[in-house]
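Sample entry (127 residues):
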Amino acid sequence: MPFPTKLILPITLILIALTIGCDRSGSLITPDKENIEVIIIGPYTETCQGFIEQQCYLEFNEESQEWHFFYESIQGFDFEPGYIYRLKVRLEDRGTEIQDVGRYAYHLVEVLSKEEASVDEKPPRKP
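Predicted structure, serialized as tokens:
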């Protein structure tokens, strides 16, 4: 049975509408929906090389069970060495037009936990 050509236009319009409603990552976006994440920040900072040499937080990746550099600042977060923090943060999309900065700006929503940890243990213990 041949494909009915009268279905091409409605299918094309549906695909275009879905494409317009998606951001570059392919997920549906709405302007009023906040992007909230929980991140784990280690008990000390380390010198790292981003665009310039800077001090980076250590972020624990639960999937790989390893610490990685976190190159961004977290607005509203007062870091105190010697603690492992579990933070709820809001991500603000900066877009891709700005060079030499990360895609997202991070804003502290809430400190979920603050556990004492040694700054001498390298890498830090797993949270």
